[in-house]
């Protein structure tokens, strides 16, 4: 028969001490009263209760509490635990399950606001720059946070998402579409990390598409205001009469249909003068892919003039007055002054045909797109490649070939002819 430990009194238990260096590690004393009940004492004097017993044929040590648990209470806990074991309950597994449930419950209380912070920190490398990151966040701050910012991500429903999107779905469609996608990504991240379960309430297919119209079918007045195609030659002639680096950069933006940032960061080393090509590095492209731009004679003429005027240490084609890269406000200010000059002359100015707002630099890409679609026979894929939009790898490979380069060169020359160069 196994040896039965002597039942110690509370005073005897109180007087138990760690043997010191003679016993490395923790010392364990049987206190009796319940078979397997032990007092564990650390070298530093810390005390805790253990129950050594068999569970499902395996020897286990089950913690019953620390120094604040009295001898009597420890014996009661030990008896109760052994009773559970006799009834087929594994106390250790039960404890693990409770801990797991507590962690899951805590995760489900993560607010949407905190989830956005964690998501942005986890996906920081996806953002092109700090400005892009702030734009991403500001959309959520302006529209989503007032509705679900303080709500646990586990409690966000389709009705919440609809409440956020519906007020701007037909008036700011592009913004609303991006907002929906951003909410969806945050909630996907939250689900992947155990903060919520079930379907994503911001998903489009099979969800919000039953409540909201297709983005392509509703008015989108938040697109960047563009110079109307019928006004483009007159507008471009007015631009060419203006002096300054900003005007020349804007002229080059128009001729190449490039983005403002790509042109403002353009360096002389990126130009192949002989082949009349401009290679924009992936680091400055929205799609993070190197992009080759064919240069018309009109575009080359601008570059030549900028090169002739450049200082020996200048690397930027369109530098700021005090050196460095031209600011994005410089081009915007040039277009604003052009519009104001028209108004002062008693004319309507350069207004977008859809929104009636004054045209801005980025809208010039839409003007080019309208020209390709409405006034030329060039294929849509060629236009999309020239605009550096997302296209299939096969199409991209095709338009990088020499023959397609020449066809693109012809397209940009025709565009320059249309503008009246």
From TrEMBL:
An annotated Gene Ontology molecular function: DNA binding
InterPro entries hit by this protein: CB, DNA_brk_join_enz, Integrase-like_cat_sf, Integrase_catalytic, Integrase_DNA-bd_sf, Integrase_DNA_bind_dom, Integrase_recombinase_N, Phage_int_M
UniProt xrefs under Gene3D superfamilies: 1.10.150.130, Integrase, DNA-binding domain, Intergrase catalytic core
Keywords: DNA integration, DNA recombination, DNA-binding
Tyr recombinase domain residues: 214-412
CDD domains, A to Z: INT_P4_C
Pfam families the UniProt entry points to: Arm-DNA-bind_3, Phage_int_M, Phage_integrase
Segments forming domain Core-binding (CB): 110-191
Gene Ontology biological process: DNA integration; DNA recombination
SUPFAM superfamilies xrefs: DNA breaking-rejoining enzymes (SSF56349)
Keyword DNA-binding: yes
Protein family: Belongs to the 'phage' integrase family.
Annotated protein name in UniProt: Integrase
Species in which this protein is naturally found: Neomesorhizobium albiziae
